[in-house]
């Protein structure tokens, strides 16, 4: 490449010839493709209209010819809900990928579920995307899963635009949604549009940046008309435009200078500033509309192009495994060594489908790639672009793209390179399961297919865990909630023809301690020849609230001075401490939120070994917990929201109180027709609640819940759990005798 200083001396004709050279032309095209690409996800609380919005986006961009609704009367259903279960239940269960073109830009879109039970689908999508659309219900405002999605976007540093949806619905209040974003989500949000009319009178939006009214005419909103702002909206337009400029001036130097000089920015200056600060994650532009009524979607697509980043504008890092996992910044360059991340797996009758985000380099069909996790080289047999459940074969894909590989054996979150580098991408956050279910095939003939189904489902979904209880022989399936497990049981029946018998779900109880307790334990065993000898001294104490809030469950602190315990046995002590915490003394559940401090001990020149110190620590901790640490049982508590007609408020609150719920808030909308109740409720009390709610509200009530934290059970409940655990243990001992 010629630098700018020398370019002036190259004759014009030679410059033209150079620019026409295939390698230069190819480099230019790839760069343009990257700059004109967007990788976005659509995320929100359940039933906020994500899939409906995606359906309209696909229609307006020409990817589909007809609009079908999530619960359509024609029985077709939305394009992105390709599973029969999704169409029957009217919810998104799996994230689905598609692509489209709007203006000059190629847009990869992932539509994600809103139900908390399928939150890992949102997690893995946001891990690999460059931007997102946060959909907020114009009636309900910020809801429980909106808070979860917001945390996920912040966790992966994803810039976003917001879309306040459902402004055609009774009780729509876009300012409530805006204030919720500012107060509850702590976002620097401001309107870039104001709606013209709400509920049945919603007819379009006012673009406050360009000061024009936009109408979406025709049955499907295809005829867009831009007109001067109607007189009744002029004052509102100017008010929110001034607020927009003021908020952008607070964070953008260019607009701040104009603001201080009392000069008004041009629409281009304002848009450029909004783009800069959106990509910097300091600002969220808020769009308005109704996806169901086909209003506002095209302007939202303009906003995706205008404000969300292209792949080269996002900083991505990998870990260099060959250099002590040092951070390496990746270049969004098709000519660089390949780095790609497998973020989602699907099993089909044709083999495994692996969704891949390419961070740098080019992935080609038929090429050999290195799986840095396994160290194996594998061939790329088939490369496709996904449009929901449809596939388009492609020969290659470059940096910044999202594609899928067919027929490649790998695991979720595996990193692929071309073999010249040994990089690994950071994995995603996977929440722990909160509910378990014993499950077995109804007929013995279904055992083989049952095993296949479990293998497939656990590869697809990292929040689904399957374990065999060694003592009972039962298969225990653990997941994120009742619906999560129910869906997989139903999928086994439909996809593998295996009908299952399920047992009562088991709640993931834990144990902790409330008091500091010391230990001084000698483990000594002699049976001829070299025996076992290990002495450990120290204490166990509860972790601080700050560490618990960060998710820390166990901490080991070595404070041994000198060589009373040889250095090589310190790790043995930690292993023993961790092993002791796998099963608490009260109910047999994991012991968490503890710090084990090792102060001193003793070793024998001949008899001390790894096993001796592991066993010494196990016995020491169990003894300390029993004798002075005052253990208690913890249970999972769910943060839940119930939405129903106001007339049922009393019965809902009463039912939650009966279930040990703590009512946090009860908000009635302006006309008193709907009530939103927020509460914290123990998970063990929530089994079957969906049936109770439906019957008590004539089918009009809805609820959602997500895991909040583990909290102590009541003394009475703890006594029952301890009694049940002792009886179960005694029964097993009698069986063994």
From TrEMBL:
One of its GO terms (biological process) is mitochondrial translational elongation. It is found in: Mitochondrion; Plastid, Chloroplast. Belongs to the GTP-binding elongation factor family. EF-G/EF-2 subfamily. GO terms for molecular function: GTP binding; GTPase activity; translation elongation factor activity. Residues 35-313 form the Tr-type G domain. PANTHER family: ELONGATION FACTOR G, MITOCHONDRIAL. InterPro entries: EFG_II, EFG_III, EFG_III/V, EFG_IV, EFG_V-like, EFTu-like_2, G_TR_CS, P-loop_NTPase. CDD domains: EF-G (cd01886), EFG_III (cd16262), EFG_mtEFG1_IV (cd01434), mtEFG1_II_like (cd04091). GTP binds at residues 44-51, 111-115, 165-168. Keywords: Elongation factor, GTP-binding, Mitochondrion, Nucleotide-binding, Protein biosynthesis. This is Elongation factor G, mitochondrial. Pfam families: EFG_C, EFG_III, EFG_IV, GTP_EFTU, GTP_EFTU_D2. GO terms for cellular component: chloroplast; mitochondrion. Pathway: Protein biosynthesis; polypeptide chain elongation. Coiled coil: none annotated. It comes from Spumella elongata. Mitochondrial GTPase that catalyzes the GTP-dependent ribosomal translocation step during translation elongation. During this step, the ribosome changes from the pre-translocational (PRE) to the post-translocational (POST) state as the newly formed A-site-bound peptidyl-tRNA and P-site-bound deacylated tRNA move to the P and E sites, respectively. Catalyzes the coordinated movement of the two tRNA molecules, the mRNA and conformational changes in the ribosome.
């Amino acid at each position: 490449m010629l630098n700018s200083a020398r370019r002036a001396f190259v004759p014009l004709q030679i410059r033209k010839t150079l620019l026409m050279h295939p390698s230069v032309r190819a480099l230019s095209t790839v760069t343009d493709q990257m700059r004109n690409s967007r990788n976005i996800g659509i995320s929100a609380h359940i039933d906020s209209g994500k899939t409906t919005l995606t359906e309209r986006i696909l229609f307006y961009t020409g990817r589909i010819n007809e609009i079908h609704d999530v619960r359509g009367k024609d029985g077709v259903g939305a394009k992105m809900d390709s599973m029969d279960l999704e169409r029957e239940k009217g919810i998104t269960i799996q994230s689905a990928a598609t692509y489209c073109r709007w203006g000059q830009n190629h847009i990869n879109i992932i539509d994600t579920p809103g139900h908390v039970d399928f939150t890992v689908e949102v997690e893995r999508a946001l891990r690999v995307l460059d931007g997102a659309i946060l959909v907020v219900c114009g009636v309900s405002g910020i809801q429980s899963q909106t808070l979860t999605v917001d945390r996920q976007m912040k966790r992966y540093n994803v810039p976003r635009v917001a879309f306040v949806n459902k402004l055609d619905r009774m009780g729509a209040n876009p300012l409530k949604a805006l204030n919720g974003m500012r107060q509850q989500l702590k976002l620097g949000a401001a309107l870039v549009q104001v709606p013209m009319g709400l509920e049945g009178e919603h007819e379009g939006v006012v673009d406050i940046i360009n000061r024009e009214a936009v109408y979406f005419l025709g049955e499907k909103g295809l005829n867009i008309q831009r007109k001067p702002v109607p007189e009744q909206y002029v004052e509102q337009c100017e008010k929110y435009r001034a607020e927009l400029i003021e908020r952008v001036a607070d964070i953008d130097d260019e607009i701040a200078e104009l603001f201080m000089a009392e000069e008004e920015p041009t629409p281009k200056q304002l848009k450029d500033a909004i783009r800069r600060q959106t990509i910097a994650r300091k600002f969220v532009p808020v769009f308005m509309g109704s996806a169901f009524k086909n209003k506002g979607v095209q302007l939202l697509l303009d906003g995706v192009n205008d404000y969300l980043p292209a792949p080269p504008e996002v900083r991505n890092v990998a870990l260099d495994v060959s250099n002590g996992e040092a951070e390496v910044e990746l270049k969004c360059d098709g000519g660089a060594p390949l780095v790609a991340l497998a973020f989602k797996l699907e099993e089909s009758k044709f083999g495994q489908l692996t969704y891949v985000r390419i961070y740098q380099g080019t992935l080609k069909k038929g090429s050999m790639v290195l799986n840095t996790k396994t160290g194996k080289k594998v061939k790329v047999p088939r490369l496709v672009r996904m449009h929901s459940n449809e596939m388009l074969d492609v020969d290659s894909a470059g940096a910044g793209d999202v594609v899928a590989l067919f027929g490649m054996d790998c695991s979720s979150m595996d990193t692929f390179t071309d073999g010249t580098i040994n990089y690994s991408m950071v994995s995603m956050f996977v929440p722990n399961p909160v509910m378990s279910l014993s499950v077995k095939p109804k007929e013995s003939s279904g055992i083989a297919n049952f095993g296949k189904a479990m293998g497939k489902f656990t590869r697809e979904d990292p929040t689904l865990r399957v374990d065999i209880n060694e003592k009972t022989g039962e298969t225990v399936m653990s997941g994120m909630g009742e619906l999560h497990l129910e869906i997989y049981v139903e999928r086994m029946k439909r996809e593998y023809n295996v009908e299952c018998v399920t047992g009562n779900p088991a709640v993931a109880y834990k144990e902790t301690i409330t008091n500091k307790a010391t230990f001084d334990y000698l483990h000594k065993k002699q049976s001829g020849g070299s025996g076992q000898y290990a002495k450990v001294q120290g204490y166990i104490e509860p972790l601080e609230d700050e560490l618990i809030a960060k998710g820390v469950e166990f901490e080991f602190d070595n404070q041994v001075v000198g060589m009373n315990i040889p250095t090589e046995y310190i790790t043995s002590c930690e292993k023993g401490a961790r092993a002791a915490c796998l099963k608490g003394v009260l109910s047999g559940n994991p012991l968490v939120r503890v710090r084990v401090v090792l102060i001193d001990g003793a070793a024998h020149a001949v008899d001390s070994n790894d096993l001796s110190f592991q066993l010494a620590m196990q016995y020491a901790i169990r003894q300390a917990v029993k004798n002075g640490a005052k253990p208690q049982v913890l249970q999972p508590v769910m943060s839940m929201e119930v939405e129903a007609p106001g007339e049922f408020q009393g019965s809902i609150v009463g039912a939650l109180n009966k279930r040990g719920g703590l009512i946090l808030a009860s908000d009635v909308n302006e006309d008193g027709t709907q009530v939103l109740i927020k509460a914290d409720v123990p998970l063990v009390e929530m089994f079957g609640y969906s049936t109770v709610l439906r019957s008590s509200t004539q089918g009009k009530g809805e609820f959602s819940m997500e895991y909040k934290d583990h909290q102590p059970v009541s003394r009475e409940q703890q006594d029952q759990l301890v009694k049940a655990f002792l009886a179960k243990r005694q029964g097993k001992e009698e069986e063994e005798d």
